[in-house]
């Protein structure tokens, strides 16, 4: 099974787990499995239209899926997927 790394701000929606094993053959099916396991994550990751929110970055290993095949990017059993939510703020 592939593994998704849950960022600290989202862990409270995933029983405080840092990593979660997921099933699927592409990024979207893996994330859908994740939100099936932890329904509270769904509204944190998906918008009202069922699309991954624009400000969330997803990586397959070291590669942003936008440079690959987006949500259709194929995954293997040893794939590590990272969810990176945008962080706002900074100095003036």
Automatic annotation (TrEMBL):
<dbReference type="InterPro" id="IPR052045">
    <property type="entry name" value="Sulfur_Carrier/Prot_Modifier"/>
</dbReference>
<protein>
    <submittedName>
        <fullName>Molybdopterin synthase subunit MoaD</fullName>
    </submittedName>
</protein>
<dbReference type="Pfam" id="PF02597">
    <property type="entry name" value="ThiS"/>
</dbReference>
<dbReference type="InterPro" id="IPR016155">
    <property type="entry name" value="Mopterin_synth/thiamin_S_b"/>
</dbReference>
<dbReference type="InterPro" id="IPR012675">
    <property type="entry name" value="Beta-grasp_dom_sf"/>
</dbReference>
<dbReference type="InterPro" id="IPR003749">
    <property type="entry name" value="ThiS/MoaD-like"/>
</dbReference>
